[in-house]
Design brief:
Blueprint: H1 20-26, E1 29-31, E2 36-38, H2 46-54, H3 57-65, H4 71-91, H5 94-118, H6 123-145, H7 147-154, H8 157-179, H9 189-193, H10 206-237, H11 246-264, H12 274-293, E3 306-309, E4 319-322
Antiparallel strand pairs: 1-2, 3-4
Helix pairs in contact: 2-4, 2-5, 3-4, 3-5, 3-11, 4-5, 5-6, 5-11, 8-10, 10-11, 10-12, 11-12
């Protein structure tokens, strides 16, 4: 493993950009205290890479469980789950594992509900729906009882400083928010937190960024956009009236992805991937619009065959069959 961007030493001099953000992207990242290399590909940080690849999990699950897709593609989608896990582990970012775990649990719950609502007589789907809370709690209990799994999700001493920094930042931000509930302005969260000019500013919670930049109204509108989109997507994908439509089926992975995204933003303050998730919001809006305003495609039914009398048939037969 070379542990750096492969082409970093082959960039021509006239293409090199002396910008701090570019230098950060091209510089290898290691976890302090353990010297563990953290992959980040072409992202600015390993956290952004982990966020991106982990939140593709609902789409792999969706296309893997879709029966009318090529079996090879379905198999490839299921194989991408362990590959994604390996890639997330290479970033050494807990938020990536949290995103995968939340995606698996939420999509499993949504898939069983959709299947049960579409076919109430399906005993397997009904049993899965009623047993899912028990399976959910049992899975979390198994994770918490396993030292290795607990370490991967919650961290150990190597990640303790990162967790403590997040707690400290949240306490500082809430104190600032109560004094300035209208916010400090776009891009001012770092200065509002008290970082000195010229320091490398890092905020590990996007709730802090939104609250200090835009205040209470910013929190309401930013989170409201995603919460309304998630609720609307879930409502249409589990609807017995619309759930059979392709548009409604696509809403399931989008709802799960956006829900996992909101959970991840509690421990990740960067906005590298936000344009992608704003596009997901647009996809939800477009799919819901089509469901509401465009009629569902009708399935062509074969015309019934009936028998009629035909006394004038040239072949002498008294009956003929017509469609």
């Amino acid at each position: 493993m070379v542990r750096h961007v492969l082409w970093v030493s082959h960039i021509p001099a006239f293409l090199r950009i002396p910008d701090p953000s570019v230098q950060v992207t091209l510089t290898s990242t290691f976890r302090p205290g353990t010297n563990v290399y953290r992959a980040k590909a072409t992202f600015s940080t390993p956290l952004a890479l982990a966020e991106f690849i982990s939140l593709m999990t609902p789409f792999f699950l969706h296309f893997g469980f879709t029966p009318r897709i090529n079996p090879i593609i379905r198999l490839g989608c299921f194989l991408m789950i362990p590959i994604t896990f390996i890639a997330v582990r290479m970033t050494d970012a807990r938020l990536g594992l949290v995103g995968m775990l939340v995606s698996l649990l939420l999509y499993g719950a949504l898939w069983t509900i959709v299947r049960w609502r579409s076919n109430p007589r399906d005993l397997l789907a009904a049993a899965a729906v009623y047993a899912y809370p028990l399976l959910f709690v049992g899975g979390l209990g198994a994770i918490m009882s396993s030292h290795r799994a607990k370490m991967m999700l919650l961290g150990d001493q190597a990640q303790a400083s990162s967790t403590a920094a997040r707690d400290t930042q949240l306490g500082m931000a809430l104190a600032k928010l109560w004094k300035h509930p209208w916010g400090f302005g776009s891009g001012q969260s770092g200065d509002a937190m008290g970082f000195a000019k010229g320091d490398f500013i890092t905020i590990d919670n996007y709730f802090i960024v939104i609250s200090l930049d835009y205040g209470l109204l910013g929190i309401l509108f930013w989170y409201g956009l995603f919460v309304i989109a998630i609720i609307t997507a879930v409502r249409y994908c589990i609807s017995p009236e619309h759930g059979h439509r392709p548009e409604a089926k696509l809403l399931a992975p989008l709802a799960v992805c956006l829900a996992a995204f909101l959970i991840i933003k509690w421990v990740h303050g960067q906005a590298d991937n936000h344009s992608i998730f704003f596009m997901f919001l647009g996809m939800v809006s477009a799919l819901v619009y089509r469901i509401r305003h465009e009629p569902a495609p009708e399935v062509a039914k074969p015309k019934p065959t009936r028998r009629v009398s035909d006394r004038g048939a040239s072949d002498g037969s008294r009956e003929a069959y017509v469609s």
